[in-house]
Amino acid sequence: MNITDVRVRKMTKEGKMKAVVSITIDDEFVVHDIKVVEGDKGLFIAMPSRKAADGEYRDIAHPINSGTRNNIQQIVLEAYEKALLEPEAE
Fold first, then answer.
1. Which of 10, 11, 27, 48 could join 33 via S-S bond, C-beta 3.0 to 4.6 A?
2. β pairing state of 17-25 and 3-10
3. Which domains does the chain possess?
4. Sign (positive or negative) of CA dihedral 80, 82, 86, 89
5. Under 8 Å CB-to-CB from 34, ≥6 apart: which residues?
């Protein structure tokens, strides 16, 4: 699996959520609404989720193993850090 495109939308409001990201996998499959979140131990990603009837949030797309999750997180956070260096569009 190769992540072939990453699109970062930075958040302008203060808060824990820093950006919303879309990734393209193998130029064939897109996952939208991956969140970049500031936690107690630094930045991490939260996969797209939906609120269930019981009030819990459940991922609607997520990696099956920790190696894949770490790979996606590394690529997304690198793209986010790069986006921080770009000037704001007006």
1. 48
2. antiparallel
3. 3-85 (3.30.1120.40)
4. negative
5. 20, 21, 22, 23, 45, 46, 47, 48, 72, 76
